[in-house]
Amino acid sequence: MTSLPSSVTLLRHATLVDGGRHDVVLDEGVVVAVTAAGSVPVTDPETTLDLDGWLLLTAPAEPHAHLDKALSFDLIDPPYGDLGSAILSWTTYAATMSLESIVERARTQALAMLANGITAIRTHVDVHPGAPTRGLEALGRVREELAGLIDIELVALCSTQAGDADIEAALDAGVDLVGGAPHLAEDPVAEVERLVGFAARRGLGMDLHTDESLDGPVTLDTYALAVRGLRRDRQYSAGHCVRLGSMPREELFRIIGEVRASDIGVIANPITNLYLQGWEHPTRTPRGLTALRDLIDAGVRVAAGADNVRDPFNPVGRSCAFETASLLISAGHLSPVEAWHLVSDGARSVMGLPAAGPRVGARAELLAVRAGNLLDAIANAPADRIVLHDGRVVARSELRRSIAVPAFSA
Fold this sequence. Notes:
Helices cover 33% and strands 20% of the residues. The chain contains 14 helices and 16 strands. The protein has helices spanning 73-76, 83-94, 99-115, 134-145, 164-172, 188-202, 220-226, 249-262, 270-276, 292-297, 321-330, 336-343, 345-350, 374-380, and strands at residues 10-15, 21-27, 30-36, 48-50, 55-58, 62-65, 120-127, 151-158, 177-180, 205-210, 236-240, 265-268, 302-304, 366-369, 385-389, 392-397. It is globular. 51% of the residues are buried.
């Protein structure tokens, strides 16, 4: 494939997740028809893509990123370790970084994610005491620069050390949601109530880092009860929720019931939680994941994200939803269809985005990969990809491979 149209009206011969081959018709960024492969005549070759041999998926969305921290590992050179050591390394470095350095790393990271197929990102941005708007100004600039290529939501990650004035200043800078990490506070319940108060007064949704530990405080039930009376046209979600994976079953089911009643979306972050959790258990190390199966079976809206990428909280990461989906299968024991749902349709639901994908009436947020089926795509993460945002091609990747041919004897 040598060239691609910027706008697309027809995708021909695409393989969908169900194994069927179809033509997909687009109009102004919306899927208007899905028919048998080859049934739609080509009227404009310039806006037609032939996807014979390609798998067409709902484009993934990243529901939990930290673009202000991304790609800082080599700059910081932190020790490998748990959540506490990562926080210390990051806060020490953060006091020295400039707005421009945040912009550069965040832009690079967002574009890497876009190239891999992610067309929407929700990023948490630190509200540092004394410099509460620096990160939000940087990410606001990146969001503006990349408008039309990728959608970016901003969450004010309010430090437990940030005073009310700092938080007010951050919210004035223009954010989509109120965030924080109440389980790290001296009084976790009071911190939940403080952050919920800001959301209520501002009419904003919330996305909290919640109970990110194998043991320790539980705030998810407090959070669920606190937001039940808030505006229902806003999104409320909880990231990590690692504690759910290690608590007694009776308590687990009680809390899941509260989460379901408040329609709180839960966002798992497998790669970062597998890395950060369990350092204190040298043998029979816990997985460090939330209770995925129980949440899904209970009807909770569940998403999954990559979280940190190459920073003190996760030294690796490929900026790719196939990596997250693979971990959901191997560590979370989900099926390939369930795993892909969590990084695509599930993520979009938790983020409050319109339905997307190759089905009639959905937004044309699409990812085509050179793969035979979904498991093949997740297992191999093919480099050949075409990314459509709002019905337009916004990224394309091609792999060129050369392998020496061995001499076989007759």
